Amino acid sequence: MPGLLAFADPEAEVPPPGHLGHRARMREKLLASGPDALLDHEMLEMLLFLALPRRDTKPIARALLARFGSFANAIAAPAQDLRQVEGLGEAGIAALKTVQGAALRLARAEILDRPVLNNWDRLIAYLSAALTRERVEQFRILFLDTRNRLIADEQQARGTVNHTPVYPREVVKRALELQATALILVHNHPSGDPTPSRADLDMTQEIKAAAGSLGIVLHDHLVMGNGRHLSFRREGLL
């Protein structure tokens, strides 16, 4: 009735409609219990809500999980594959790649300014996050100082699904530019099997010889697979 409307409290809190109420409840759960309290699809929903505040992000989150299988796979997926997810758009893709970048920076921070050889588990965790979901081979080099602290982590080359061209002369040249005294070679096998190929073995020996001639030590060559890795040093291949 019109007369009764005059007594309505203009400050009264009205429950938010639909997906906005759902989002508020998830936000409360996140802040109260931490991120581990959220399932993968809820984490994706929360993340996408920041990029798409006026959209119901639940269907998009469900579509991401259906296509890629997990939160980690979704944020690590190539942008061209993410563009095929209906409703995601450039803002949503940028949000996913920002979280991936943040995760890698956090992992890399755990090994910066510390002797890498004494923080091996953290190094493997970082390299796993950076490489195990890559769909083509990527060859990286960790350049170390006299105390085996990380000077630089650089991608030297990207190749195909089973081959990456690497040139020992370029590796040694870059080490000299950075005044590095030691190296760790790293590359991934998109097949998931970290067993080194004959080309991997030959290339490692060539780099070891070229670096050693200038007093640069090759500590190891790591091959990253899917949930597994292989150390040339530990396998007696170096």
Please explain how this structure is put together.
The protein has 238 residues and is an alpha+beta fold. It has 2 domains: 18-106; 115-231, 3-Layer(aba) Sandwich (Cytidine Deaminase, domain 2). The chain is 47% helix and 14% strand. The chain contains 10 helices and 5 strands. The chain has a 5-stranded mixed sheet, with helices on both faces. The longest helix is centred in the middle third of the chain and has 21 residues, at 89-109. The chain is elongated, with a radius of gyration of 24 Å. Residues 1-16 have low confidence and may be disordered.
Write out the strand line-up for the largest beta sheet, numbering strands in chain order: 2-1-3-4-5
Q: Helix count?
A: 10
CATH class of the largest domain reads: Alpha Beta
Question: Which outline best applies?
Answer: elongated
How many β-strand stretches? Answer: 5
Low-confidence stretches: 1-16
Helix content: 40-55%
What percentage of amino acids are in beta strands?
5-15%
Q: What string gives the helices and strands in order?
A: HHHHHHHHEEHEHEE
Radius of gyration over all CA atoms, rounded: 24 Å
CATH topology grouping of the largest domain: Cytidine Deaminase, domain 2
Number of domains: 2
Structural class of the secondary elements? Answer: alpha+beta
Distance between the terminal alpha carbons, to the nearest Å? Answer: 87 Å
Report the biggest beta sheet as strand number plus sense, adding barrel if it closes: 5 strands, mixed
Give the name of the CATH architecture of the largest domain.
Answer: 3-Layer(aba) Sandwich
